[in-house]
UniProtKB/TrEMBL annotation:
Keywords: Cell membrane, Membrane, Transmembrane, Transmembrane helix. The chain crosses the membrane at residues 6-27, 58-75, 305-322. CDD domains: vWA_BatA_type (cd01467). It holds the Pfam family VWA. The keyword Iron does not apply. It comes from Acidiluteibacter ferrifornacis. This is VWA domain-containing protein.
Length: 331
C-alpha cells in the first residue's frame, strides 16, 4: 500500500510566511497607487481595463506558488510501500461428509446435503492458510479431494457432491478411517477431522469407535456433527407410478457414538437441527481451530519531492520572465 509521508514536517511552519508576504504585497501596492496623481480621471473607463492590467498580479501569484512548492520540497515527501511476510503454523483439516439417502430429508433447507455443503464451503473460504481435503461416505467411502491449499479446487469438488455417487448406507467408521488415513502422514502442527452425519453406522467393515481410536493414535482431533431436527423430518419419496410425495420419517442420530468419537479424540460433538445452528457450529469450530500467524512488516520508501521542485522552478522562472517583459511597465 502506498502512503505519502513527510521526512521533515517541521518545514510546514514556513507556511506562516505566506500571510506576511500577502500583507507586504498589498501594502506595497497601496503605497504605489497612492503616489499616482492625475489632474482628471474622466478619460479612464473602469469597465474597459486591459487584460494586462487585470493580470498584473500573476507574477506575485507565481511567487507564492513557488514558495509553497519549496516548502513541500524541504518537507521531503516520501511514498512508503509496505508489505507483510506471513508465517503460519498450518492446520490440516479433512471433512468427512455423509451423502447417504437420508441426507435428502428437508428439515434443513433446501435439504440436509445441500445446506451442509453450503455451510462447509463458507467455512473453507474462511480458512485461507490451511490445507483442506474432503472425504465422502455412504455405504462406502472415498477421497473426493486430498489435502490442498488450492481451496477453489476443494470448493468445486464439494459442489459436485451428491447422493447416489456410491452405494447407499451410512459407513461412519469407514468414512472416519479414510479421513484419518489422509492425515496420518501430515506434519502439520494440528490435524483435524470434521465428521458430519445424520444417522447411525449401518455399513462398512470398521466400527466408528475403532476408527476413533486410530485417529487418537495419530494425534487427530475429530469434531462430530449430527444433522437433523428433533422428532420427524419430511423425506421425498417416489411411488410405483413415478409420482413424488413426502413421508415423515423418524430422525435417528446415534448421538452417543458421535459423542464418544469426539471425546476419544479430544474433539467435540455438535447437533444441528436447522440451517442457523449448522452455520453456528462451523463458526465455533473455526474459532476453536485458529492458526497462529506471525507477521513481519517491511517498508520501502521513495523520495517524491521532484514534482514539487519542478513546480517551484517553473513558477519562479515564469514570474521572472513576466516581470521583466509583459508586466515590466506596471510592476
Amino acid at each position: 500500500m502506498n502512503n505519502i509521508q513527510f521526512a521533515n514536517p517541521s518545514f510546514f511552519l514556513l507556511f506562516a510566511l505566506l500571510p506576511i508576504a500577502l500583507l507586504w504585497y498589498f501594502l506595497r501596492l497601496k503605497k504605489k497607487n497612492a503616489d499616482l496623481k492625475f489632474s482628471s480621471l474622466n478619460w479612464i473607463n473602469p469597465h474597459n481595463k486591459s487584460i494586462k492590467v487585470l493580470m498584473r498580479h500573476t507574477p506575485f501569484i507565481l511567487e507564492i506558488i513557488c514558495l509553497s512548492a519549496i516548502i513541500f520540497t524541504l518537507a521531503r515527501p516520501q511514498s512508503s510501500l509496505s508489505y507483510q511476510n506471513v508465517v503460519t503454523e498450518g492446520i490440516d483439516i479433512m471433512i468427512a461428509f455423509d451423502i447417504s439417502g437420508s441426507m435428502l430429508a428437508e428439515d434443513l433447507k433446501p435439504n440436509r446435503i445441500e445446506a451442509s455443503k453450503e455451510v462447509a464451503i463458507d467455512f473453507i473460504k474462511e480458512r485461507p492458510q490451511d490445507r483442506i481435503g474432503l472425504v465422502v461416505y455412504s455405504g462406502e467411502s472415498f477421497t473426493q479431494c486430498p489435502l490442498t491449499t488450492d481451496h477453489s479446487v476443494v470448493i468445486n469438488l464439494f459442489k459436485d457432491v451428491k447422493n447416489g455417487m456410491i452405494e447407499d448406507g451410512t459407513a461412519i467408521g469407514l468414512g472416519l478411517a479414510t479421513a484419518v488415513n489422509r492425515l496420518r502422514e501430515s506434519d502439520a502442527k494440528s490435524r483435524v477431522i470434521i465428521l458430519l452425519t445424520d444417522g447411525s453406522n449401518t455399513a462398512g467393515s470398521i466400527p466408528p469407535l475403532t476408527a476413533a481410536e486410530i485417529a487418537r493414535e495419530f494425534g487427530v482431533r475429530v469434531y462430530t456433527i449430527g444433522v437433523g431436527t428433533n422428532g420427524k423430518a419430511p423425506f421425498p419419496v417416489t411411488d410405483a407410478f413415478g409420482r413424488s410425495r413426502y413421508e415423515m420419517v423418524d430422525v435417528k442420530i446415534d448421538e452417543k457414538t458421535l459423542t464418544d468419537i469426539a471425546k476419544t479424540t479430544g474433539g467435540k460433538y455438535f447437533r444441528a437441527t436447522n440451517n442457523r445452528k449448522l452455520a453456528a457450529i462451523y463458526e465455533e469450530i473455526d474459532q476453536l481451530e485458529k492458526s497462529k500467524i506471525e507477521v513481519t512488516e517491511y517498508r520501502r520508501k521513495k523520495e517524491e519531492f521532484l514534482p514539487f521542485a519542478l513546480i517551484a522552478s517553473i513558477s519562479l522562472l515564469l514570474a521572472i520572465v513576466l516581470k521583466t517583459t509583459v508586466f515590466k511597465s506596471i510592476t
